[in-house]
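Supplementary Methods S3. Complex input for the succinic acid-bound model.
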Amino acid sequence: MDDGTLHIHRIGASAGAEITGVDLSNDLSNDQFAVIHQALLDHHVLCFPDQELSPEDQIAFARRWGDLAIHPNLTGMNDFPEIIAVERKPGDSGHLGSEWHNDTTSLEKPPMGTMMYSKIVPQVGGDTLFANQYDAYDALSNGMKDMLDGLSAVHGDGRVAGPRAALNERRTNKTDESDAWRETINTHPVVRTHPETGRKALYVNIAYTLRFENMTTEESQPLLNFLYEHSHRPEFTYRHRWSENMLVLWDNRALVHLALNDCPTSHRLMERIQIKGDRPF
Ligand code: SIN
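Predicted complex, serialized as structure tokens:
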């Protein structure tokens, strides 16, 4: 239904709502923004189909949520350093974000949310998968929850940037792989409390988490492997199919996500903005 009235329609069991009846190229009233803000907290991924948005429009909407983050390892678009063109060209065998992750958890204050606007979408493939980390935490046994509640984990960006990452040959999106690059490392709780909902969410991910604090990599790996597998059990996931001119906003504090690496002959182009977050607690 799109009668010009803001309408929220749930599209996934574990996460995901579609919002129609709003034109994001116009200034939103405070009341409209409050409804959309609450929808993000309730549904974790919001999808706005059929939006005609310039880079300036995207930046204006993103700024309603907070200050914008400049990516530490990827270069933004000319004139718009806050926007990363996430691009896959025919022949690429790799793709940005193709492992389960919350965005840039190597930072002391990782982005609270990410906005992505679709410009070119493959005929088939190129979906984005999301997994609800409140549900992942809630499904653990009480014994496991008690143990994890007291743990922190060390996160770094050496798998996604720097010379060891060796990703640039396979993909259009180039990360900083120079010898001068230095890994950013920060420690976060393994279970974070969402600063707005107060709910607990699992907060480790295969792309950035290195080990538990005060433990070796070898000691950490078996339990981390269990948590990575557990974090994207099918019942926690929502699979997002894109169409062109769709804006999607997700909450990195409540979800992990990945870009499916399944469209090697297609062109896919998205414009992505990240919104600054708080230090996880
Ligand atoms: C990302 O991980 O931020 C990119 C997701 C996608 O391209 O679907």
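The CA atoms of residues 155 and 208 lie 5 Å apart. The chain is about 20% helix and 25% strand.
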